[in-house]
# Entry
Amino acid sequence: MAQAVSPPNVGHADPAVAVARHAEDVVVGDRIVRHSLASRAMHWTVGTSFILCFLTGMPIWTPIFGWMAYLFGGLQVCRWLHPFLGVLFSVGLVWMAASWWTQMVMSSRDREWLSPAYFARYMRFQSTDPETGKYNGGQKALFWMTLLGGLALFLSGVVLWFPTMLPEPLREISWILHDVAFIAFFLLIIGHVYLAIAEPGTFESQLDGTVSKPWARLHHPRWYREVTGEQRK
Amino acid sequence: MPIQGLEILQSSASLRGQGTGLRVLPTVSKYIDTTTCIGCKACEVACQEWNDLDVAATHQEGSYQTLPTMQADFWNLIRFHEEEFEGGLAWLMRKDQCMHCADPGCLKACPAPGAIVQYANGIVDVNPENCIGCGLCETGCPFDVPRFSTKTGKMAKCTLCVDRVDNGLEPACIKACPTGCLHFGTKEDMVEMGNSRVKQLQANGFPNAMLYDPAGVGGTTVVTVLAHGDRPELYGLPKDPHIPMAVASKSILKPLGLFAIGATIVGLFAHFLTVGQKKPADDNPPRAGG
# Structure
């Protein structure tokens, strides 16, 4: 892991960005490639399909968001389009599961991140566990909760797609499940987006795929040591 | 079909209806007496004719019933049921249709503004123009009435001939009934007629006779006299219908969810103002080539 990859002589003024098209977890100059193009494409397939599901689903959920329907041509279009976008979102989640499943296995140390005391300290931006790897406990937990929420949304969504062909109790359960899963999942996503704003440099890693060395040292110290070969101070 | 002249009491996915109360309308009602129904199906034909509905292909299922259930283009179905009682075999027939609940589960379930309306006279109607064909009204209906039409992509059900009623005519089914088991009038009059018929039945060997006007859905605009009122399920009617839990839960889940989402956004904004951003002390990255 420790060796830096020499930039290929192609394509982009920033060699780190060029490397990020095909590799990750490598140092290029003073940048570290965090997400390869494939990872970013996967992330944004999930992200954009969720946003589109959100925009077509909210006006069906409550008329308060009825104006969103006009972005697509009305509520009838939303009712037709939303399930297909949901399928796209589900496909994105399968892609995400396949890409990150092994990287997101939680250690007992990761689980400590989820303790209220550690979480409170994290949210005060006071400390980072020096053993934080490429993904911290919160990110790993978000991954698993996203898959769980996505599964609930998919299963209940299929029932709601073809309601008149399925038995009444199933339709009722699915209706409640779709609402509850959405609310819970959306709260997580608000937090996810917020941390991308509150921790500068994070969002860039999902744009060109790279992060600065200080960013990596601050947020993911063990991952930083692994990719740079630096020893723990 | 929305009727312009009628005041709208309740409208789906809307804060309120448009009833001003200036034009006072009596609440209309349809009276069905299952004890005098002969199962002639004149009402079925009249309904298909007046509403310009297609002729549904029937199939033999060992019963006189035209179709197993109502369909998107078949809103009025006489149900046939045979039941063995102490005194012998009873042949129970009931005209099945939309009950036009005072507290309509379909309207409460509907997410499309104005797709289901309840007029001031009690009639619950689908407005296809606004219907998005999601089928949630079918989930919300305790009587399993609304049907999805694959032809139009919209939901359909009995309108209680609101287009006739608004012009001073009785519904087509009432007009066609040859035995007088169907009547149309104000809710008060129909309930009174039903109660007196129930008393007559109770005095003549049907002690359990009742007028079906279930309180669980606020009463129904269509009231039905049942000889065996202790067992409405024999007629295909639920004993104690209520709006399903899933519909009722919307009134809790929506405000709760919106509050949680709003509170989270406000809380995180407060966090941003108080805690700020998490930046590395030495992060001023000069980008190579940038």
The longest helix of chain A spans residues 168-198. Chain A has a mean pLDDT of 92.
